[in-house]
Automatic annotation (TrEMBL):
This is DUF985 domain-containing protein. InterPro entries: Cupin_DUF985, RmlC-like_jellyroll, RmlC_Cupin_sf, YML079W-like. Pfam families: Cupin_5. PANTHER family: DUF985 DOMAIN-CONTAINING PROTEIN, RMLC-LIKE JELLY ROLL FOLD PROTEIN. It comes from Chenopodium quinoa. The lineage of its organism: Eukaryota, Viridiplantae, Streptophyta, Embryophyta, Tracheophyta. Residues 18-142 form the DUF985 domain.
Length: 165
């Protein structure tokens, strides 16, 4: 199995920094999430389609501000295990993601973090496509205390996918 470091080198992955004056019609990136890492809860004003490429399944968490519920979508190669090869997050929805085997979520939404794993051999490689194009000035990182006040039942999960205020 290829390691996460080998993927970074082979695909020439770098920190995502965009400081331009143009506005592309769409953007597409590779996104490598090693075990032990999360994509923190955030929202953007465009739809973002996630594509599974390699490694372990990845879970996308969405928070529904209308009814306080959560939605968990698993990206991965095993269609018979309810994994999807791609999924689109709607615009203006709080969402984040994590390697599925790193965090278990009970039916009532309580999250438990798994024991640490080797992040060289346990990772999720996905792609993210935004249309209209992703722009950093549109990116809104969630504040833990605010989300917990809206979604108190899901405090454990929100705490794992946000930084302390």
């Amino acid at each position: 199995m290829v390691t996460s470091s080998e993927i970074v080198k082979k695909l020439n992955l770098q920190a995502h920094v965009e400081d331009k004056v143009d506005r592309p019609v769409s953007t597409a990136i590779y996104f490598l999430l090693p075990s032990g890492s999360v994509s923190k809860l955030h929202r953007i004003p465009c739809a973002e389609t996630w594509h599974f490429y390699l490694g372990e399944p990845l879970t996308i968490l969405e928070l529904n501000e209308k009814d306080g519920s959560i939605k968990l979508t698993c990206l991965g190669p095993d269609l018979m295990d309810n994994q999807q090869p791609q999924y689109t997050v709607p615009p203006n929805v709080w969402f984040g993601s994590f390697p599925t085997k790193d965090i278990s979520v009970s039916p009532d939404g309580v999250a438990t973090k798994a024991a640490p794993r080797d992040n060289e051999n346990h990772y999720s490689l996905v792609g993210c496509t935004c249309a209209p194009a992703f722009q950093f000035q549109d990116f809104e990182l969630a504040k833990r205390s605010e989300l917990i006040s809206y979604f108190p039942k899901h405090e454990s999960l929100i705490s794992l996918l946000t930084s302390a205020d």
